[in-house]
């Protein structure tokens, strides 16, 4: 199996870990049929990628077989941010969706125990078309058999349509909302778009909550229902 080393996975601080553990618990209460979960948001930089990987990590730490899929074919940060090292050049989702490689050639076993990863692959001129083809559906259906949880990181739904194409393949979606920067109206719009796809909205994560007016680096995660 292909191997990828995350050379820079930071230990989570206590409050982040606690918040993610309660997110994991809340997910359990959403029911056992929610195996394929997609995270999206209104805008870029609200924390989708950070939350996706951290959620995958806490699920993996709980003994679940988890696969994290980076489906942000436009602005992937995973490889650069976490200093990913692989022996060969990375083959990713865009290679697979364009029919260039098989599934086995894009799944990497990571140095985070129980967590495998599919990287986004190189930028393509037509991400929405690629994500909309039947390859993605087939991939997710197969992964669902092999893993306990499939976590999918996506681009923001408020700015590109890719996520609307991805979510019908998922059991549920979580909306990541950056505290105090996103308007109620923007969230409602994205919620409406998600509802139009028919996907189950599992809830929202209010991210980067600045409790007690602490400096910005003391952000915490929090979760509440979007309904
Ligand atoms: N809970 C958090 N606390 C502090 N910083 C955060 C948190 N979530 C995300 N960030 C930071 O915000 C920036 C954008 O996060 P990222 O996950 O890349 O957003 P997105 O995937 O939505 O574009 C990154 O620099 C990340 O480190
Ligand atoms: Mg991202």
Automatic annotation (TrEMBL):
Alphabetized Gene3D superfamilies for the sequence: P-loop containing nucleotide triphosphate hydrolases
Gene Ontology molecular-function annotations: ATP binding; non-membrane spanning protein tyrosine kinase activity
Residues spanning the membrane: none
Domain AAA: 35-193
Reactions catalysed according to its record: L-tyrosyl-[protein] + ATP = O-phospho-L-tyrosyl-[protein] + ADP + H(+)
EC number: 2.7.10.2
Entry GO terms, CC: plasma membrane
InterPro entries referenced in this protein's UniProt entry, alphabetically: AAA_dom, Bact_polysacc_biosynth/exp, P-loop_NTPase, Wzc-like_C
Keywords carried by this UniProt record: ATP-binding, Kinase, Nucleotide-binding, Transferase, Tyrosine-protein kinase
PANTHER family membership: FERRIC ENTEROBACTIN TRANSPORT PROTEIN FEPE, TYROSINE-PROTEIN KINASE
UniProt record similarity statement: Belongs to the CpsD/CapB family.
Stated name of the protein: non-specific protein-tyrosine kinase
Native organism: Anaeromicropila herbilytica
Origin organism lineage: Bacteria, Bacillati, Bacillota, Clostridia, Lachnospirales
């Amino acid at each position: 199996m292909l191997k990828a080393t995350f050379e820079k996975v930071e230990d989570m601080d206590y409050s982040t870990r606690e918040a993610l553990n309660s997110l994991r618990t809340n997910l359990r209460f959403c029911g056992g049929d929610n195996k394929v979960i997609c995270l999206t948001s209104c805008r870029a930089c609200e924390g989708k990628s950070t939350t996706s990987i951290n959620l995958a990590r806490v699920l993996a730490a709980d003994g679940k077989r988890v696969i994290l899929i980076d489906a942000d074919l436009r602005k992937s940060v995973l490889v650069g941010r976490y200093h990913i090292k692989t022996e060969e050049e990375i083959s990713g989702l865009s290679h697979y969706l364009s029919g260039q490689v098989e599934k086995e050639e894009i799944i990497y076993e990571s140095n985070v125990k129980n967590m495998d990863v599919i990287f986004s692959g190189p930028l393509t001129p037509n991400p929405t078309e690629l994500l909309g083809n039947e390859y993605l559906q087939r991939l997710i259906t197969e992964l669902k058999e092999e893993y306990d949880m499939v976590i999918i990181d996506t681009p923001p739904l408020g700015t590109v349509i890719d996520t609307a194409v991805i979510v019908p393949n998922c059991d549920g979606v979580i909306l990541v909302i950056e505290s105090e920067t996103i308007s109620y109206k923007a969230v409602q719009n994205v919620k409406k778009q998600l509802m139009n796809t028919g996907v189950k909205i599992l809830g929202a994560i209010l991210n980067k909550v600045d409790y007690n007016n602490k400096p910005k680096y003391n952000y915490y995660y929090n979760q509440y229902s979007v309904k």
